[in-house]
């Protein structure tokens, strides 16, 4: 694996050189993990000023970390509390004769940026921008295989929940139960706070579970995901509680299903992000649900729950092969509830069979 | 409660006026919650430019929020995705004729700060610094009562775990079980990722649970806490698995216990933060464990897991009454394990009975 990280760092150094700064400081945790192969709290990565260096606090025995740092990377531990590793990195870059340092202005706070200036006043700080985020958009097969495992774990956890008795249980308990099952099946952790929404809550984006209990006739919508080796997937499903769904429930479900299918079918290399959004959104718009729709119909996933690309009306750019994204339209009717359907898929060319569905739990309207 | 939030905002406006800026923009989530009474994702608070205003995205039905916003506060919803509420706030402040705006430079990123400058180029941006964090240090009785309930919940969850069979179970399962019990007993959620550490892991600060199983003769250390109405407490305990602890275990436990007691006993209004740290640290230092000790022996708790004050060697300042803090020394022996003992207490004057212990689970060395 070591070559993978070294190759990623080499690509970033190329970006930096092209941008006029030979030296870069990476501080955003997911970006550090992507380039160094480890998640150590507060660790930062200094590239291009002599050998690449991972700066962090404390010694390995004291630290809690996910994965071992790439062996080709020198790790520099600041003793004890040891101050801010980013400040230490700027100091070091200046000491090594760097003239400029590209930093992640979208991650560094104003106060921290000022501390860098103050420790290395002759170093010209430039903006690295979203260079690492851009590198992260297209995944390699190793990354996709982590996402595939994350999705399998998620599907298993959900399948087990569906076999259990749901009526009378609270949203909070169902959410905890799902999270326990994710870990049971080998997840590092839940990728994000599991959402379980019943009755009038169903279909709400990011609904935080409450003490409301599942009742006969409810819509029940769940959204969950596992993290596996740092990679996070996402699934959302909506069910009906009881034997026969009401007509309005069937109609609403069919509509959201059609929207989600349209979004999935739009996924192909070369398709504009906004066209995927439009494909799903148009179905809901045409049925009179334009208002209250989510600002985006999907987004990239990887080392973060939500990353580029954004599948949204104003998003610029086109899909590539090997980009994992969610497609997740939903409709919520205030006071009545609603439907959300959410999959994680990998964009693949038609010749390879089209989009690869990672979250394979059925999207039939199950009555539980 | 509405007067409480209005009074907090009035105090902050006084700070701002004293600092030369009549208008302030609060962006750090815990600070917004403290002043507005609600936690809405990405919400920001604009103070002093006309009436106080909470700016957020989306309408109430679409938002997930903890607690209702203070009714005396006008809520301004940006439609749909609606851009950055902080940028909208700067625009509004400029439109209302404000000349300067104090912002939280320790929270705003460089990129976001630049967006404020760009939307309101004539507005002079100054630094609000940690003004709100400073207001938050001393808690009112309402806040302390939330912390007291959080601690009760935490004690209950821990008590139940201790009654169950532990040998053979993994750290990860025990951690999940504790988190489930926290929610069972009424927590909003776990305050932070529950740490369960067995055998050679025991006593490590912030240890992330692994698949290691509890064995006879192990030290078992746990660290957990509940969030109740946004307030977060923390408890850490170490146990021995099996009937009779080894001599080295008893010695190490007694030492850490003595250090933790010394720290607790040092808590009083007027005592320097660093002297509390020193009281606990000195006991461990004298026994030859100076190296590898945590950079601080405790810290404030409240709407965040870790807030001011820091009980650390270089910390400046003195304790006040009604400041809740942790006291949490520990020793970890690489390869063997170790001991951590952690309580949440509220500083109270001697006349009121001295420090109030919120986390009342026994600190005897239990053999489980």
TrEMBL record, chains A, B:
UniProt name for this protein: Peptidase
Source organism (scientific name): Streptomyces poonensis
Domain of life the protein comes from: Bacteria
Peptidase M24 domain span: 146-348
Pfam families in alphabetical order: Creatinase_N, Peptidase_M24
Domain Creatinase N-terminal, first and last residues per copy: 8-138
